[in-house]
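User: Teach me something about this protein's shape.
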Amino acid sequence: MLAGLAAVGATESQSASGLLVICVVQGLLSIVLSTVYRVPVKFAWSTPGAALLVATAGVTGRFAEAVAAFIVAAALIVLVGLWPALERLIGRIPRPVSSAMLAGILLPLCLAPVKAAVAIPLLAIPVILVWLLLYRLAPRWAVPAAIVLAGILLAVTAGDGWLAGAHLAPQLVFVAPVFDPLVVVSLAIPLFIVTMAGQNIPGAAILNNFGYRAPVRSALVSSGVMSGVGALFGGITVNFAALTQALTAGPEASPDRTRRWIAPVAAGVTYIALGLLAGVATAFVSASPPLLIEAVAGLALLSALIGAVVAAVEEAAHRLAAILTFLVTASGIVVGGVGSAFWGLLVGALVMLWLGWRRRAASPRP
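Assistant: First, the predicted structure itself:
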């Protein structure tokens, strides 16, 4: 995220302000919508959007022009949220396809514990062993214990050198937008597309996959409005979470699915706390091995991966479509700036339609 903001001209103070406002906005959205709907609605910043900013470095060197593009992208999200057909379309995504897409999203992260055990064994193996031990004795405490141990190990190995780069909570920095038509076309439109295709649509599909009715319209309109306001302080678009949606909506959050909405509320509180300590948190994480953090997340998502794989291949008639969805999503391809989750959904839906049409055509008429 910080690299993406810097790539479009943000100063250090503007980047810190952007990180602060993003954390607070996604935290507030997670808390409010999850509480109102009693559904685990999780929000996050646009990861493909941040990658897009890095990839489009040079489109503009003036952050004020990028801010204007952020506002336009947010306005487009609001307009889509006011379109009822989108909510109906997402609700019709076949379960085998959405489950396979979820499995494809989760697979790379669930491989992280294996990679970490080889690359950083002294840090990763103790965390994995603690997780495995408690998964047998006290399953609900397995992931929290792994997180605590990983934090301790990171603190010990990082030493105190990271404190030199740490700062107190950053101040909000207002950035007056400057609208440049070329930057709007080059940045706002792609940002809108990758946010919708790479985050909002898969995120809503994942929520539906766990048996919840995603409040698509409310989520898109509120996140679009809040993203537009946050853009004035350097933040990019906030959207439905995809990867972490699986954490908060899955059985790891709670065996009782009616109480899983509490998980994104807790996550929202944590986001706000991290936002207020963005300088300290960023310095600490930057001094930590990223692979260990990914490994802990991978351990937490294993149950969600198992459930997604089982649901994807449960119906024999749709296994080919599900496997193709899984493979395309897990491949991590990016075509036209749009990530693999969207293309996996598209390929799976098209194959399912094609095979369904062939079966109907081949079936004898009465």
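Now, about its shape. Strands lie at 43-45, 238-240. The two ends are 60 Å apart (CA to CA). If you'd like, I can walk through any region in more detail.
User: That's plenty for now, thanks!
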